[in-house]
Amino acid sequence: MNLKLGIKPVDEELGGVRERSLILIHEADPRSLGKFLALHVMKHKLDSDNLVGYFNIGIPLSVFLSVASSLGIDVEAHLKENRLMIIDTFGSIYDLRTEWENVWYLSRPISLEVLNEKYIEVIRAHKEKWRRLNMFEGRELWGVTLSISDYLHMFGPQKTQRYLELADFLRASSDVYTKYPAGTNIWVYTGNDVVVLPLLYRKATYVLKTESRITDEDEVLRTMKIVKAPGLESMPVYEYTFRSGRIEFL
User: Cα separation of 128 and 164, whole Å?
Assistant: First the structure.
């Protein structure tokens, strides 16, 4: 079954994305605003009354809330209406916490060796809540992670690589993904490296790469390339911009 991603060129070119697939947004440089593509999808899914789990890795939650608000995402309302849940990894590590409903924190101590188990523990608890509220019926389930590359800054590339390799094994055997519905996931990775990024390209079902450059007119030109997708025969490139918090493909 294919789901609409909410990114017009992807939906038109590919007919959407496979349910339960992994979509990697490779933000080659921060100026390309690849993160905003992920948040655009998040807004589209929440506004369509679907369920979203947001994994906040590398920034204070207050920064995410500010950016989300600028894009028209009413985080507080979606949390109150139980469509949105947040796992605040950054706040868990640095002990910056809020008492909002449906914002979860990982138990300490936190290291990459135990991070998978701690995520599974929280995801299980929230999926059980969604089950009790009968929220799964008729809704898509999405996960959005900003950003996988932040693990490298926290723990280093080799440990991050081991964490990602172990994640597949642990999640395949966990009741979180067998007893409860499994979601379609979007991971954002910023920058480049030779250890973790190649692994992510192999793991992902779809790869969207965003890049930017300064034109001769001193304007920012942003492009998105579909690098990987089932049955993809070429790698189409699309230009886009942001106006008033909305993405526009040119």
Answer: 25
